[in-house]
Amino acid sequence: MENTTNLINTKKTILTGLMMALVTVSTMVFIIPVPFTSGYIHLGDSMIFLSVLILGYRYGAVAAGVGSALADVFVGYANWAPWTLCIKGIMALMMGLAIEKCMKSKRNIIYLSIITAAFWGLFNFIVHQIIQSQIASNPQSLLSEDVKDLSALGELINQVQSQLMLVALLIPVFLIIIALYIRKKEHLVIPVYQLLGMTLGGLWMVFGYYIAGGLMYGNFAVSAFSIPWNMVQFVIGFLIAALITAALYKTPIKKFFTYK
Fold first, then answer.
1. Domain 2-256 listed as CATH 3.60.40.10
2. Which pLDDT does position 157 carry in this prediction?
């Protein structure tokens, strides 16, 4: 029994190192700098989602947090590394714990979907109010090298607010659809609770970087401009992870997944 446990732990450690490397490489391979917050978007979230499905939330959190933080250091964003370590680690934890809760009861899928949708709607409302307050009190603080005058700032703010409104509407709708769809379908290639877990983890990532950006630069209105970019990163990572997972579930590699 002890030898079996040691063998399992050794396999987990090896897989954790492998997934950590994949998170780092996938984060570094394709980088788009984000204006205002001096951050960037990437493809690394796809490997974070995959890490949790394979390793579970404990080992997945290590691969996600350390792998992403290493990528920040390697590509010249070391100032973001401590934040990334925490945000990505918690992202993996939330995803894995959500999956485990939902595996225990279908009702938890519905409850979690409703709670997440409500929180996300409230978050977008608060961000909208912060931006409006900053515009009214000190619009000059929102100017940067990318937006040098108030006219361009007005256009950007309208664009960002439209994107935030669209996201605020689509995410709750998506989560409610998941909650209702689970009543009709019990067997999918990728279980609904895994999709919900990835959604929850991705939304936490967007929220976490918004808070981190606001604290780092002392302006939560400016940090809001990164939300649409991080949403794009989350959605792309979600789609890539879903496609890879669906393909791997049809192969013998499925036996390595913690959450099947």
1. no
2. 65
